[in-house]
Design goal:
heterodimer; A: 6-stranded mixed sheet; 5-stranded antiparallel sheet; 21 strands; about 35% strand; B: two-stranded parallel ribbon; globular
């Protein structure tokens, strides 16, 4: 990532953050930077330490190592035993359960974080935020009378009202129904981007991370494995475990010979590997192109295969193909593929299979170098 | 070290506050224990040789008898009203708690009046059958057996409450699995419901036994010498070592209490594991045939009639026929004493409990958890023991103050011991657990993310308490004050020992009049205590109704106690 001069001191900077709970490592030398106006998604399974990282940044947990800087101001530095309390960090937080105060109505919830100005000023400011999130008509409602989506919007307005420098969102959409989630996510991200706040959003949903994030970090066991643009992280996953976060992967082991590897699925270039290197070849199912065998557009180097299994999964069909020349009884040589469901593949059909060279990633085997 | 002082774990001041309150409560108990080896001028040795074996034997027999009887009554009635269907079952659900309103000493007075030789029952027998005293045998109520029955009638609601809560919280699925596997209602009770409820029942039973060990009024009146009465008697001995010997007796009693606390802690831990499922539906209820329904109604009414209606009617009749009319002014004055004392003590108990609950919340560490638990230990300690434990340091402080002031020609006298200060202190030790349990139960229902949210929105820990916790706890604060208030009104042994000279409360007055066989005069005070005692029973039964998962909300005693995020589940903790 390139850094602009203005972004140097603004937004959020985490350096070498470590935190353990007993033997459980929740944060393991985490480095992170979020620029103003950007939405940075932190993607990881539950227990990967993503929520702990948010709490460390918020000041709800204390660092054991490393430092955290918000807009150029160091708010936590383990070496100097510096720990600014949460209320002194100018951080907005949207909790997974929204954490609306049940004893206060919507307007008072939003005004809770506003400390300056007269009571009337604060209420007017709260109302402005309610308008921005489209909840003006519910200003006097009590939180328990609101739907999940409405509660989420109030929580967002409440967190934004004090105009924080950074926003932390902990699984903010996970409590919502599927059909509601997309709409709420869209409005939430629009509001966040227009305010120009640096946003760190935690999610366990890879699709959400790719959709919502300007930058995506994949975290596992308290450690960030890869950070990049959504397309980078998806197309050029640093490790197999990152790749598998986004769905199943076709993987096969091979040995480099003359700058190439031979696999049951064809020959792939391995320009950076020395001869004899043990490697693993990964092919993303969505990158594989399928065509009917009678298709006129049969590209060069095309392979033929037979469909073993076809399952429709919404707009896409999930297929398993056995290539000609491989033993169909050996599942390790089967290719997992996605194709449009409307092409209505059936089990037993023969297909033309094309694997673009860019679809294959050749990586050293974990046993030889160790998986990060 | 900023990290330690205001780190993410909350301010250190929170731990200090919790520790201070805990020290206040634990001091009298520590003082008693510390006196074990003190020189009692031979008094202890004398007691050990003469009365101690009697105390021990009576106390153990009493505990055994009450334990068996309360378990039988409590579990059977809880099962009937929770899982069977018969007319009046809904009424019995709360009515079975009514005997809680009657302190056991009042029950003892009422039955003595009713069943003694000159009482109405025996008089009626003699008149009806023309018998004389030699013609018939009638069980003596003022005996160990009588004490067991009277205590059981007053204390079984603790077991009832624990068992009922356990039955209500049992997953319906588990019971239905039993039925699909071919167990009938009775066998599924014996093989599934009862074993699952056992830890809870044990916890309720240990409460009963703690009350039994602490029991003073009834056994004293029945002249059954137990540890509790022994402590009081030793305290009143005209011996300058009396206080020390009383403390040593207290330490013996504490040993038994510690044993019970261990059992209770074990039972509660197991009870947590036994909570299997969070899925609840309307409980199944088995309709009973008319004959069985009649038996069930009888089984449920008997404890209520004997434990509540009979004593109430006795005192109501006596009040109606005269009562304390001759001493109306005394009654009003004493009533005011009780009211002021209870009000002050309950407000203080709520304030201290708030300190502990909030301190623990702001800084949740193993240390604050342990401290907070210790602060609630007083409820297990018999009132007589606490009184002795309060008196010893007070007397010591008085002497020091006297030494300090005597050079100035000022006679300090008894500044602390024998004042309202000592009584209120004693009440705090005994009843802080009541307010603390209730507040902590409510506090756990406030989700931790609300604290986090308040901090993120710029509130300091203390301001978080003021702007989030206090408003949400308002209803519980009131309920806690109410429960302590009623407990103070009913309290007898600690008040008897610690009260200022010539300062009577309702309970003390009733005790004195009853001891002088002037029960008619005592009846007005007794009735007043019973009526006040009804308040927490009503609160409790409503809480229990609300606590049923998936049940109808029911009416709420005070607003603001419950919120969207969880119904009250604190009913069993309120039990003491």
């Amino acid at each position: 990532m390139t850094q602009t001069a203005s972004g140097e001191h603004q937004g959020l900077r985490v350096r070498g953050a470590c935190r353990r709970f007993g033997v459980f490592v929740a944060a393991d030398h985490v480095d992170l930077r979020v620029r103003p106006g950007a939405v940075h998604c932190l993607l990881g399974p539950s227990g990967s330490g993503k929520s702990t990282l948010l709490r460390l940044i918020a000041g709800l947990e204390s660092l054991e190592q490393g430092s955290i800087t918000i807009d150029g101001r160091v708010v936590a530095d383990a070496e100097r035993a510096l720990h600014r309390p949460p209320e002194d960090r100018a951080v907005g937080f949207v909790f997974q359960d929204y954490a609306l105060f049940p004893h206060l109505d919507v307007r008072h919830n939003v005004a809770f974080g506003l400390r300056r100005g007269s009571r009337r000023d604060r209420h007017r400011a709260a109302d402005r935020w309610l308008e921005r999130v489209g909840m003006s008509s519910h200003a006097t409602a009590m939180p328990h009378t609101l739907s999940g989506g409405q509660q989420q919007r109030v929580a967002l307005a409440r967190a934004l009202a004090p105009e924080p420098r950074i926003m932390l969102l902990d699984e903010p959409f996970s409590g919502l129904d599927d059909h509601l989630r997309a709409a709420v996510r869209k409005t939430t991200l629009e509001i966040l981007r227009t305010t120009g706040v640096a946003t760190l959003l935690v999610t366990h949903d890879p699709r959400e991370a790719l959709l919502a994030g300007d930058v995506v970090s994949v975290i596992r066991d308290g450690h960030i494995i890869q950070t990049g643009l959504p397309s980078e992280v998806f197309d050029h996953s640093a490790t197999r475990s990152v790749a598998e976060v986004f769905g199943p992967v076709n993987a096969v082991e091979a040995t480099v010979l003359g700058g190439h590897v031979e696999t049951p699925w064809g020959r792939f270039a391995a320009p950076d590997q020395r001869d004899g290197t043990e490697v693993e070849v990964h092919i993303r199912p969505s990158a594989i192109e399928l065509a009917p065998t009678d298709s006129a557009t049969s590209p060069d180097g095309g392979l033929r295969g037979r469909i073993l299994r076809a399952r429709i999964e919404g707009a896409l069909a999930r297929l398993v193909v056995a290539l000609d020349g491989t033993a169909s009884s050996d599942p390790s040589t089967h290719l997992k593929c996605y194709d449009l469901a409307r092409r209505s593949w059936r089990e037993g059909d023969t297909v033309q299979v094309t694997i673009p060279p860019s679809a294959a990633q050749v990586r050293p085997r974990p046993s030889t170098r160790g998986d990060e | 070290m900023r990290l330690a002082l205001s780190g993410a774990r909350g301010p250190l001041a929170a731990t200090v506050t919790v520790a201070a309150v805990t020290a206040l409560v634990a001091t009298p108990i520590g003082v008693v224990v510390a006196r074990i080896g003190a020189d009692s001028g031979g008094l202890w040795e004398h007691l050990a040789q003469t009365v101690l074996p009697d105390y021990l034997r009576n106390t153990l027999w009493l505990a055994l008898g009450v334990g068996v009887l309360t378990t039988g009554i409590g579990v059977a009635t809880a099962w009937l009203v929770t899982l069977c269907r018969f007319p009046g079952q809904r009424v019995f659900r709360w009515a079975l708690l009514l005997p809680l309103a009657i302190p056991t000493y009042l029950c003892a007075y009422a039955y003595t009046d009713l069943l003694q030789f000159s009482g109405p029952v025996q008089s009626w027998l003699r008149a009806t059958f023309g018998w004389t005293a030699q013609d018939y045998a009638f069980p003596e109520i003022r005996s160990l057996g009588g004490a067991i029955v009277v205590l059981s009638l007053g204390l079984y609601p603790y077991v009832f409450l624990a068992a009922r809560t356990a039955f209500v919280e049992q997953s319906v699925c588990v019971l239905e699995v039993g039925r699909t596997l071919g167990l009938g209602p009775w066998r599924s009770f014996a093989r599934i419901a009862l074993p699952l409820a056992r830890p809870s029942i044990l916890a309720g039973l240990s409460l009963v036994l703690m009350e039994t060990l602490a029991e003073f009024g009834a056994v004293h009146y029945f002249a059954v010498d137990t540890f509790a009465t022994g402590i009081y008697r030793t305290f009143t001995l005209p011996d300058r070592h009396a206080l020390t010997a009383a403390a040593q007796l207290s330490a013996c009693l504490l040993l038994l209490v510690a044993l019970l606390l261990g059992v209770e802690a074990l039972a509660r831990r197991t009870a947590r594991f036994y909570s299997l499922s969070t899925r609840h539906r309307a409980l199944p209820s088995w309709p009973l045939s008319p004959l069985r329904a009649a038996l069930a109604i009888g089984a449920c009414s008997l404890p209520i009639i004997l434990g509540f209606v009979v004593p109430l009617v006795v005192f109501a009749l006596k009040t109606w026929r005269g009562g304390d009319a001759r001493a109306r002014e005394t009654f009003l004055e004493i009533g005011r004493n009780s009211f002021v004392l209870a009000l002050g003590a309950s407000l203080l108990a709520v304030l201290l409990a708030l300190f502990v609950a909030c301190g623990r919340r702001l800084r949740t560490t193993p240390i604050t958890r342990l401290l907070a638990r210790t602060a609630g230990i007083g409820y297990a300690i018999p009132g007589a023991v606490i009184a002795i434990g309060v008196l010893i340091p007070m007397a010591w402080l008085d002497r020091r103050l006297g030494d300090l002031l005597s050079p100035f020609g000022v006679s300090a006298g008894l500044l602390l011991s024998g004042t309202a200060f000592a009584v209120v202190y004693g009440y705090q030790v005994r009843f802080l657990a009541v307010s603390l349990n209730l507040l902590q139960a409510s506090m756990t229902r406030i989700r931790p993310t609300l604290d986090d949210a308040a901090r993120m929105l710029g509130r300091s820990p203390l301001r978080t308490v003021a702007s989030v916790h206090l408003p949400m706890l308002r209803g519980s604060l009131f309920a806690a004050a109410l429960l302590v208030f009623v407990d103070v009104i009913k309290e007898l042994p600690a008040t008897l020992i610690l009260r200022p000279f010539d300062f009577d409360t309702l309970a003390v007055r009733v005790y004195q009049l009853a001891s002088d066989e002037r029960l008619a005069e005592a009846s007005t005070g007794a009735l007043a205590i019973i009526l006040v005692g009804l308040i927490p029973v009503i609160v409790l039964s409503r809480m229990l109704d609300r606590s049923r998962p998936g049940g109808v909300g029911g009416s709420v005693p005070t607003p603001n106690t419950d919120n969207v995020f969880g119904a009250a589940d604190g009913a069993p903790e309120v039990a003491p």
